[in-house]
């Protein structure tokens, strides 16, 4: 704007207000930028807290009702001591050791994870007099101590299979577990039967966190290098497959 000399006071005020406006706009911009950064950081922190919460839930997910029932079964059998009683105590101690100690670590060896699954299988087999159709096929066993993973991922997938297979309840129910190394990937697969009567499995097994929590943990530790597939397979069976690149 052009001002004549008689409007010098107006020009002075104009310059003052213009300078104030620039300062206010700059401060507002910086404030908005700071708030945006803080909001983004809060979202990031919340995302990390959510991931950690999922992991903590996975770690504490082992069905307490199953553990209590196992203790009750051991107590009942203790009146007539047998090899099954001592074997039950041994398998339960392995499982409790895993829950109390191993799950508090950020990573454990696959050997430790599989040890907990085998202990859980052993307890179920003892409960049903070793009549359950559960196979655990592990190849490349020399790698089990060398590869470390976040705890409870494989155990959670196996528990989900226990929940939905109606193992020990319906005839011809089964669970097939397989582990191997293929093309620089470790490959973990579970194929299980599907309960024909859904109401039978709801009362005997826990309502786990399911695949959503497992995927969340995989995204945190193995983003872009894993493949996870879970769904219906042939013969009305259910298949869960996990591959992670080494």
Keyphrases for this structure?
alpha+beta; 246 residues; single chain; 7 helices; 7 strands; two-stranded antiparallel ribbon
Walk me through the structure.
This protein has 246 residues and is α+β, with helices and mostly antiparallel strands. It is built from 7 helices and 7 strands, in the order αααβαββαββααββ. The protein has helices at 8-59, 64-77, 83-100, 110-127, 153-165, 198-202, 211-222, and strands at 108-109, 134-138, 148-149, 175-182, 185-192, 226-232, 238-245. A hairpin with a 2-residue loop joins strand 4 and strand 5. Helix 2 (64-77) runs antiparallel to helix 3 (83-100) and helix 4 (110-127) packs parallel to helix 5. Mean pLDDT is 76; it is low at 200-208.
Short characterization:
This protein has 246 residues and is α+β, with helices and mostly antiparallel strands. The protein has seven helices and seven strands.
